[in-house]
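A.,

Following up on our hallway conversation. Structure tokens first:
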């Protein structure tokens, strides 16, 4: 009979637990960066009233809406005016919007994997044993790790059959790295924008 939970005293299970913790932490940091992006886009000190406690989905959708709206305004302006007349701040702002906009499509697939990894129940062995191929799927990273221990994450879903995915520890680590990379790109773009704003004063 397969163990229903991981054993925190087992060194391999501990590595997985550590990697899942990294995904949870990276995800919280990405949400915080999206709250900062909202603040940058809207301006003012009161944005926290609506942004605090919101989900990754909500934050990313709101940022997307604001960016689309500001890009539309800016692009209409470019059509009317010679862009060489635009201030370096305005050009920097345009770069900022494009840069954030380029990051946003990467968030939903990472969110889906985050949900499986952080909210799933983890098993060391497949509950379906020989029928694993039939009932379980590979993680979005495929079968990269032929020799690695493949754990199972079983994620309950509303009104649907639960999703059972095979994950190796390096794949969970990779997910944490990818979430962190998106957060760093968003943060770098915002810092560049903030520096441009300071230079413009
Ligand atoms: Zn399986």
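Then the amino acids I'd put at each of the 201 positions:
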């Amino acid at each position: 009979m397969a163990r229903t939970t991981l054993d925190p005293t087992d060194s391999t299970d501990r590595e997985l637990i550590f990697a899942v913790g990294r995904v949870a932490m990276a995800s919280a940091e990405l949400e915080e960066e999206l709250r900062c992006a909202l603040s940058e886009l809207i301006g003012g000190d009161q944005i926290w009233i609506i942004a605090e406690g919101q989900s990754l989905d909500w934050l990313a959708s709101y940022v997307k809406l604001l960016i689309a709206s500001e890009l539309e305004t800016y692009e209409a302006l470019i059509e009317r005016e010679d862009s060489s007349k635009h201030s370096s701040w305005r050009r920097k702002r345009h770069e900022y919007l494009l840069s954030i906009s380029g990051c946003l499509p990467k968030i939903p697939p990472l969110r889906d994997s985050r949900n499986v990894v952080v909210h799933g129940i983890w098993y060391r062995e497949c509950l379906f044993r020989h029928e694993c191929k039939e009932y379980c799927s590979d993680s979005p990273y495929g079968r990269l790790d032929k020799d690695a221990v493949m754990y199972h994450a079983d994620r309950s879903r509303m009104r649907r059959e639960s999703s059972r995915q095979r994950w190796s520890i390096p794949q969970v680590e990779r997910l944490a790295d990818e979430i962190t990379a998106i957060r760093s790109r968003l943060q770098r773009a915002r810092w560049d924008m903030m520096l441009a704003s300071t230079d413009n004063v």
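The mean pLDDT is 88. Curious whether your intuition agrees with the design.

B.
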